[in-house]
Design goal:
Largest sheet: 7 strands, parallel
Bound molecules: nicotinamide-adenine-dinucleotide, magnesium ion
Organism: Flavobacterium suzhouense
CATH topology: Rossmann fold
CATH class: Alpha Beta
Strand content: 5-15%
Protein name: SDR family oxidoreductase
Distance between the termini: 49 Å
Keywords: Oxidoreductase
CATH superfamily: NAD(P)-binding Rossmann-like Domain
Family: Belongs to the short-chain dehydrogenases/reductases (SDR) family.
Pfam families: adh_short_C2
């Protein structure tokens, strides 16, 4: 008996997004910065057992900052499963998370390069790009994803040192890394920045962080105009509340954490895995007319 195409393939089950993943209330938990995905409860889903690739990024060479955990890890897993070689940067205290990602990339038969180091240091940012280019044999995709977020009730509680650390990590590092990477990027290459709903709708307790995300959205739009004629696309992803170590290591108050994502129309936080396909789409040739755009994933709350 003849079967049509739809019958032959396995059909994708409809999934109700409101109950697909854990909902609040969450258990109280606090880790010291920068936190580990391995110690979160429940453990975030980065697509370890769910993301299926189809060769969309075969042979590409990607550098992802903050690739050890959270959204960066989800992008790293997806890129490797789509056929890319991947270098990840992370803070030295995150070696445990990073090694899990390295193993997952290698399982796909792809090159995995682990590049620990502190992004607040300009010379490290330059070395990072150099080592990624050497290890990968070039660079096609740069994902500026790492960030620092520390919640403070009042502006009076933010020291100059803390303010500086947030600016260095979130604003300076992408500037230094992008400058170092640009000479290696050819037409068709892309830069992706992780911004936030905070860029448009800042929370009172994220005074410094929210400013940096407005800066991120802005550099994406400016750089896209600058690099468009060179054939290099620059886009951003604006997440809403996502279940990652950043939130349990000073990024949110305990009160906010317990109800995390509960105020979105979907009633729960997003999982990093739910953003992976956006990072793939923005790097893929199929997204070739999108540049200077911000793509949201915020459970129905916030606007990119
Ligand atoms: P995460 O903690 O998993 O990732 C952040 C990463 O930043 C860390 O893993 C760490 O490797 C890196 N990092 C921070 N400071 C560093 C430093 N000085 N040197 C080297 N690495 C450093 O959390 P995440 O939520 O996946 O964060 C990824 C991106 O998503 C960030 O840009 C964040 O602003 C953005 N974002 C997150 C949310 C959310 O709710 N989780 C919402 C909007 C935007
Ligand atoms: Mg981490």
């Amino acid at each position: 008996m003849k079967k049509d195409k739809a019958e032959k393939g396995t059909s994708a089950q409809l999934e109700d997004p409101t109950v697909k993943y854990p909902q609040p209330p969450f258990k109280k938990q606090q880790q010291s910065w920068p936190g580990l995905a391995a110690n979160m409860e429940p453990r975030p889903d980065h697509g370890e057992s769910s993301y299926q690739g189809s060769g969309r990024l075969a042979g590409r060479k990607a550098l992802i900052t903050g690739g050890d955990s959270g959204i960066g890890r989800a992008a790293a897993i997806a890129y490797a499963r789509e056929g890319a070689d991947v270098a990840i940067n992370y803070h030295p205290d995150e070696e445990q998370d990073a090694q899990e990602v390295v193993a997952l990339i290698k399982e796909e038969g792809r090159i995995a390069i682990a590049l620990p180091g502190d992004l607040r240091d300009e010379s490290f940012c330059e070395t990072l790009v150099q080592k990624a280019v050497e290890g990968l044999g070039g660079l096609d995709i740069l994902v500026n994803n790492a960030a620092r977020q520390q919640t403070q009730e009042s502006i009076l509680d933010i020291t100059s040192e803390a303010f500086d650390a947030t600016m260095k990590t979130n604003v300076y590092a992408p500037f230094w890394i992008t400058k170092a990477a640009l000479p290696h990027l050819k037409p068709g290459a892309c830069i992706i920045g992780t911004t936030s709903v905070q860029a448009q709708d800042p929370s009172p307790e994220l005074f410094d962080y929210a400013q940096t995300k407005a800066a991120t959205t802005n550099y994406i739009r400016s750089l896209a105009k600058q690099l468009g004629p060179k054939g290099i696309r620059v886009n951003g992803v604006a997440p809403g509340p996502i279940w990652t170590p950043l939130q349990v290591s000073g990024g949110a108050t305990m009160e906010k954490l317990k109800q995390f994502g509960g105020d979105t129309p979907l009633g729960r936080p997003g999982q990093p895995a739910e953003l992976a396909s956006l990072y793939v789409e923005l790097a893929d040739n199929t997204g070739s007319y999108s540049t200077g755009q911000i793509f949201g994933a915020a459970g129905g709350g916030g606007q990119p």
